[in-house]
Amino acid sequence: MIFPTLAFLTALIITAFAIPSIIRLAQVRDWLDRPSERKSHTVQTPLLGGVGIFGGLVLALVLWMPEAEYLETRYVFAAMTILFMVGIKDDLYPIPAGKKLLGQLVTAGLLVFGTGAVIPSFFGIFGWYELSWWFSRLFSVLTMLVIINGFNLIDGINGLAGSMGLLCALFFGSFFFSAGEYFYSVIGWALAGALLAFLYYNFSNRIFMGDTGALVIGMVIGLLTTHFLRIHHFESGVYHPRGFMFEAVPAVAVGLLILPLFDTLRVFVLRIWKGRSPLSPDRLHLHHMLIDLGMSHGQATLLLICANLSFLLVAILLQDLNALLVVILIFVSASVASGLLNYAVIRKRRRLEERMV
Q1: Contact, 11 vs 54, CB < 8 A?
Q2: How far, in Å, CA of 214 to CA of 150, rounded?
Q3: Banded model confidence at residue 88, pLDDT cuts 50, 70, 90
Q4: What is the C-alpha to C-alpha distance for residues 113 and 310, in angstroms, rounded to an integer?
Q5: CA distances from 48 to 15, 85, 104 (A)
Q6: pLDDT digits (tens, 9 = 90+) for 150-170
Q7: Global confidence as pTM
C-alpha cells in the first residue's frame, strides 16, 4: 500500500499548496466565472481549480508510478495533457462544442489503443459476451466519451463533480490495490488526494474546477472504468487470489457512475425532445432542480452523492442476480426519483405563481 498512499499524500499536498496561488492569479487576471441566469452561483468566482488538480495528479504519478508500466504511463500523460489544454482554453476563451468533442475523441483513442483499456465483453447483457476487436474498441471510446462528458455536465454546483470523482477514485483505488493492479491503484489514489484538497477550497466557494478539472477527472475515471470491466472479463469469480471480483460487474460499474450517466442521458433526451442540440446549455440537470427547490449547493451535493452511493450498494448487494436486471432496476429507480423531483419543482413553481397573482 506504500505507493498508492504516497501518491495520495503527494497529490493532496501539491494541490493544497497550488490552489491559493491559482486563486490569487485568477483574481488578478480576471479569470472569473460570472453569475448568469443559467448558473447557480451569485458571486464572481475564480476558475482554473483544475490546474491544481492536474498538477497534483501528474506530479504524484511521475514520482510513484511503477516503472514496469512506463509505456502505459506515456499514453496516460499524453491524454491528460490534451484534455488539460482543451479545458484551460475553454475556461479562458470558450471554444465550440465540436472542437471540444474532437479533443475528447483523440484522448479516448489514445487511451484505448495505447493503454489497452478496452471493454472486451458485454458479460451476457442482451446475450452478448465476447466482442469483436473493432467493436470492443469503438464501444470503449464511446464509453469514455460518455463518462468524460458526464462529469463535465454535472459540474454545475460546488462540490458535485469533485465529490463524485472522489467517490469513484476511492472505489477504484481500493479495488485495484486488492486485485494487484498497482498501476491503476496509484492513479485512483492520486486522483483522490488531488480532489480532496480541491474540495476544501471548492466547498467554501473560493474556486471552481472549470472544464480544465472536469474533463481531466472524467478522463481518468473513464480509464479506470474500462480497465475495471476489462480485468473482470479475464478473471471472473466472487473471489480471486488477486483480490475481490464482482459477478454482475456491468451493474456495479453503472451503480458507481449512475449520477453522471443518468443525468447526461436524461438531459440529452430532453434537449432533443425540445428540438435543441444535446450539447446546448440549460438548467435541466438534477442539481439545478434541487437548487430550485431551495437547497444550498452543499445540501444538493450531499443528497446526490448519498443517492449515488445507495445505487452502488444496491448493485453490489444484488450482484448475484442477472446483470441486465440490476441495470434496469437502477435506471428505473433513478427515473422514478427524477420524476418525483421534477414534480416537486413544478408544484413549487405553481405555488409561487399563484402567490404572485
Answers
A1: no
A2: 9
A3: very high
A4: 34
A5: 12, 12, 19
A6: 999 999 899 999 999 999 999
A7: 0.93
User: Which residue shows C-alpha cell 448558473?
Assistant: 39
pLDDT one-digit tens code per residue, 261-317: 999 999 999 888 888 877 777 788 999 999 999 999 999 999 999 999 999 999 999
Using alpha carbons only, give the angle 263, 264, 270 rounded to the nearest 5 degrees.
85
Distance CA 170, CA 152 (A): 19
Residue 156 identity (one-letter amino acid)? G
| pLDDT at residue 240 greater than cutoff 50 | no
**Separation in Å, CA 83 to CA 190, 218, 269:** 18, 10, 26
Burial class of 95 by CB neighbour count within 10 A (0 to 12, 13 to 18, 19+): middle
59: its cell numbers: 506530479
pLDDT surpassing 90 at residue 72 = no
Residue type, 264: T
Q: Angle 265-121-269 (CA atoms, 0-180°, nearest 5)?
A: 10
Q: Report the alpha-carbon distance of residue 170 to residue 194 in Å, rounded.
A: 12
